[in-house]
Amino acid sequence: MDNNNCQMYEDEIQLLQEEIKLLTEKYEDNQQESTFFSDEEILMSMKSLQEECQGESTSDLKAQLESLETDLSFLMKFTGIQLRSHSKKTVEKAGNKTVQKHRLSGNCHSLSFQLEFQLLEMQSKESMSAVVTDLSIVMGSGEDSDMSKFVSSTEEHRNLLTFFRNLSTYAEWCEHRRCTFLHFK
Amino acid sequence: GLFAHLELLEARAYKAAVKQEEMEQQKEKLARLRARVQELRLQRDELRAKLDLQRKRELGKEGAVLDPAQSSARAVVEWKIKKLKSMLQIFYLTGISGKLTKRGVCFCISTAYEGTYLDSYHLDLLTKPEVQIYRHSLPIFIPLQQIAKKFLQTDIRRFLAVLSDHLNAYMGRRYQADQLQERFSEQLEGTLQRNSLCNLLVFNYKVSSQSETFPFHARLLYGDPCCSLPTQVLVSC
Question: From the candidates B23, B52, B87, which should be mutated to test the interface with A, based on the most A CB atoms within 10 A?
Answer without folding.
Answer: B87
